[in-house]
Design brief:
This protein is an alpha/beta fold and about 200 residues long. The chain has helices at about 60-70, 70-75, 80-90, 105-115, 125-135, 145-150, 160-180, 185-195; strands at about 20-25, 35-40, 45-55, 95-100, 125.
Length: about 200
């Protein structure tokens, strides 16, 4: 069960090769983060997970609640985004941060903008781009979204839960490393070159 107070919880400590991050939102505004999950990958490919509800201080849309099952009662006593980003920023500044598509970065940037502050200068990577490089045959044949990758790569996770989706993004990178023989560092190298 995620923490339900502003007391700082025990976070994974590292060091890690990379950390995957996922968010869920309360409504159509990417800044309305109501859950954040991280999956921290160790040198021996173990995954340390952590997840929390976030009080978005925003209304929930029925569509979003139906999608992820999170509503106002789940976040009533949860920490707000300013608190959670304060907990996570030191950890995530130390290694690459993987998202599955560009949504999570936009959500973090939007939520920071609402606070009147710059988003943390994390080194972002994208497991969708990594999956496209590893499995180009999925383009036009189911694509590289988590739902399709779950089926094709035999991933086991509950979609639309931030902790589970973060772990799935981490697993996509690990499977891509094994499939291509390239390391996460190499993936980041070509992503920077293409930027």
């Amino acid at each position: 069960m995620p923490p339900v107070s502003d007391a700082q919880p025990s976070l994974p400590q590292g060091p890690y090769r990379f950390v995957a991050l996922d968010v869920e939102t309360a409504n159509g505004d990417a800044a309305s983060i109501c859950q954040i999950g991280i999956a921290c990958v160790t040198g021996d490919d173990r995954i340390d997970g952590w997840c929390t509800y976030v009080n978005p201080r925003a209304p929930f849309s029925p569509f979003n609640t139906q999608l992820h099952g999170i509503g106002p009662n789940h976040v009533r006593n949860a920490p707000d985004f300013a608190t959670v980003i304060g907990w996570l920023a030191p950890l995530l500044a130390r290694q690459p941060v993987i998202q599955h598509s560009s949504f999570d970065r936009r959500a973090i940037q939007g939520a920071c903008a609402l606070l009147g502050r710059e988003a943390p200068p994390w080194q972002w990577g994208d497991s969708v781009r990594i999956a496209r490089r590893a499995w180009p045959e999925f383009t036009g044949n189911g694509g590289h979204g988590l739902a399709h990758l779950k089926q094709r790569l035999d991933l086991c996770f509950d979609h639309h839960d931030a902790g589970e989706d973060a772990r799935a993004a981490a697993l996509v990178v690990l499977k891509a490393e094994r499939h291509t023989g390239e390391s996460c560092d190499r993936f980041f190298g070509w992503m920077r070159a293409e930027a």
